[in-house]
Structures are given as structure tokens and as C-alpha cells.
Design brief:
The longest helix is centred in the N-terminal third of the chain and has 17 residues. The N and C termini lie far apart (33 Å). This protein has 84 residues and is mainly alpha-helical. The protein is built from 1 helix and 2 strands; from the N terminus they run αββ. Helices cover 20% and strands 5% of the residues. The radius of gyration is 14 Å and the shape is globular. A hairpin with a 3-residue loop joins strand 1 and strand 2. It has a domain of 54 residues. Strands 1-2 form a two-stranded antiparallel sheet.
């Protein structure tokens, strides 16, 4: 039975996130598990106030634990996890 709520994630969002994260769990090796920026919709600018430098996966000065390549501290991707 579906839950109707504005805060509820859509099935499509959940499936896309799972598809993007699947290689992380399948490969096991953190270096080998890095995803291409296009696979996680990386953009070099913030989205809705969220940015890489505030994410648990960000590695200063310009890297990410999950996304390969040069990562802007002001960027964003769909793997964003707010840093506590």
C-alpha cells in the first residue's frame, strides 16, 4: 500500500539511487568502486543549498570517496549525504 506524502521518495528515485550505488557494494574495493560523475548526475554547482563540502563522502580539497575525478567543493551529486 503506497504512502502518500510530499516527503516520500518516488519508486523511480529509489531505483535510480540503487542502480547508482550497486557497483559500490558489488566491487567492495573503495578505489575500484568510484563512479563516473555522469552516473551520479554530478554538477559543479550546489543544488538546493546542498554542496559537496557538506557531504560525508567529500575528501578535501577536491575529491570524493564515491565519485571519480576532480570534485568541486561547491558541487553536488545524487549521492549527497549531509555531514553531521
Amino acid at each position: 500500500m503506497p504512502i502518500e506524502s510530499a516527503k516520500c521518495m518516488t519508486r523511480r528515485t529509489v531505483l535510480m539511487a540503487a542502480a547508482g550505488a550497486a557497483p559500490l557494494f558489488a566491487l567492495g574495493d573503495a578505489q575500484a568502486a568510484q563512479l563516473a560523475p555522469t552516473a551520479v548526475r554530478y554538477q559543479a554547482s550546489p543544488k538546493d543549498g546542498k554542496k559537496c563540502s557538506d557531504c560525508k563522502l567529500f575528501v578535501a580539497p577536491r575529491a570524493c570517496k564515491s565519485v571519480s575525478g576532480d570534485i568541486s567543493p561547491d558541487g553536488w551529486c545524487m549521492l549527497y549525504i549531509k555531514n553531521a
